[in-house]
Amino acid sequence: MIAFSHVFGNDLVLSAGGLQTVSGSELTRQGLLRRLLTVAGNYVWQLDYGVGLPLMVGQVIAPEAMESVIRTQVQEDANVDSSQAVSVTVTDEGLGICRCDVSYVDAGSGQQQSLSFSY
């Protein structure tokens, strides 16, 4: 599948032929980031879609609870092989910043992939 490249919170990117596209494991990575940053209930066609990590900014960090909800949402993504284990680690980096490391198997390629970000 090919889609427009869109990293959550950024603008669409122009390329020589129009809008930049993305496919494969990068499409999965962008989709997972969008899923983790979307607030549940904001996507009207699928109300249970999303984790809402931006709402957790400024809250007390509860790594186990965060890891559980992130793991559940990653496993529900159609581009992730749900028969394989998903590993999630949330680390408190201090000053209200969390680092999130996610490891999963891409359903299309069958390859182990990782997604890391701070919020």
TrEMBL record:
Taxonomic lineage from the root: Bacteria, Pseudomonadati, Pseudomonadota, Alphaproteobacteria, Acetobacterales
Question: Domain of life here?
Answer: Bacteria
Q: What is this protein called?
A: Phage tail protein
